[in-house]
Amino acid sequence: MAKMPLRDLPAWSGLAAKRRGLPAAQALRSMFAADPGRGDRLVAEACGLYFDYSKQLLDDDTLRLLVELAEQVDLRRRIEAMFRGDRINSTEDRAVLHVALRSAPGDSFEVDGRDVTAGVEEVLGRMAVFSERIRDGRWLGHGGKRIRTVVNIGIGGSDLGPVMAYEALRSYATHDLDFRFVSNVDGTDFSEAVAGLEPTTTLFVVSSKTFTTQETMTNARSAREWLLAACGGDASAVARHFVAVSTNAMEVAAFGIDPANMFGFWDWVGGRYSMDSAIGLSTMLAIGPERFRELLGGFRAMDRHFLTAPLERNLPALHGLITVWNTSLCGCETMAVLPYEQYLKRFPAYLQQLSMESNGKRVQIDGTLVECPTGPVVWGEPGTNGQHSFYQLIHQGTHRIPCDFLGAAQSLNPLGRHQAMLLANMLAQSEALAFGKTAEEVAAEGTPARLVPHREFPGDIPSSTILYDRLTPAILGSLVALYEHSVFTQGVVWNINSFDQWGVELGKVLAGRILPELESPASPDLHHDSSTNALIRRIRSARHLP
Ligand code: G6Q
Fold this sequence. Notes:
Blueprint: H1 10-21, H2 27-34, H3 38-41, E1 43-46, E2 49-52, H4 60-72, H5 75-84, E3 110-111, E4 114-115, H6 117-135, E5 149-153, H7 160-168, E6 178-182, H8 187-194, E7 202-207, H9 214-230, H10 238-241, E8 242-246, H11 249-255, E9 262-264, H12 281-308, H13 315-329, E10 334-340, H14 347-359, E11 377-379, H15 391-396, E12 403-408, H16 418-435, H17 439-444, H18 452-455, E13 463-468, H19 473-494, H20 505-519, H21 530-542
Parallel strand pairs: 5-6, 5-7, 7-8, 8-9, 10-11, 10-12, 12-13
Antiparallel strand pairs: 1-2, 2-13, 3-4
């Protein structure tokens, strides 16, 4: 069935009219003044997450139209297609079934008519056995010592999830193991990660879906050389110090890793949706199999909520629709994710990939151009640090930047008044962004007239606040699933394929051409543009090549 253009949908024109009708200033002040119950009503709650979107630039009517929009683009049917294992990643002809990774006993998820949950369980079981052996010291390295450090080697989806989850769940991690992450092909990353490590007590987890990614394979080869140099070149050490997480058994074997030490996953798991597959092995090694199950439980709870809750109370759907409202109708080009939770310090980087690689698209599923701006630029840093840096631009700059504030009522590290101060700052920021400070208010404080414009805050910067009691593995799972499904919701409205990433290909091909030109001992014939040619010559000369 041909898809109806967005502009022809009644809800879209209604939303465009709502946008035009927004007051030029003081919109949130008027909305809150006119509706004292707004802050209690424009909220939704599920899976331990309290989602307050009352400080967004919308009213009940806008919300109703957004829900109608979701119905008119058939969001429900598209959610069901994903959960049913349809090949919704149409450009790669793949199912998109990360929800199967967190299935409960008795659940069934099928790809091509075959239930995949038994395979998921089998891998989780093997991961648990392996993790326990490492954690309790039964697995010994070459030379008989127990493993003390785990180094995950991977990039993109095979790195950002593991790093983010390790940092997020550090307070649940064993103290018997140290964890490091290597991703960049810059040799500095590897060298610094292994600095001071003892090779015979180090385990490398080579995480790569394809097992052909240049950066990861280069780092993995350097890791093997580093190990073998310490083991007198004895290649049998590799089996004790390398395990692989991959879908590509052949390449894993070709690298020299025993297939018995490989943990598999499947082509229906996209890289940026893979942190709860075997790609989470480093997470399980850190927090143990039981806590890992709790993490999966949190994901699953949000999956079920997304699948079953009415759209007007559905956290991921609401979050996604609000992002569409801000991005496509209100002209906001970026969004900031601001965790007031030090453990979530890598969460913005994780979301950057999840959102921007998924929805950074300019064509619709059928190849025609999109009808409106799509995926926002996602960025952020933990509060309160950001307040002393870039918040100035959010408060008084010329861009309107919607913000997501994330915070826990209780700290995992209670320390005097720290948590209350942290939360006071989070709440103060969303309040200041929403309501600002008028010129009259500034003047009434006795501010000299020439300073008034400098000290005025326009307000009307939209934000949502996601509050939870304490950061647990389950909460982290629900939080990640909330954003995964929000991204999906946005992609459905924009009618784009959120599950491919062709945009990363061109640079890879060009790098493959340039590499020999940088390395060749003889002066190469260069046929690039004059800028690239000059840069290549300059690098060669600095490296003492002709
Ligand atoms: C994620 C992307 C990408 C991928 C990396 C690593 O959705 O596909 O970030 O995860 O390129 O790929 P491999 O796991 O195959 O090494």
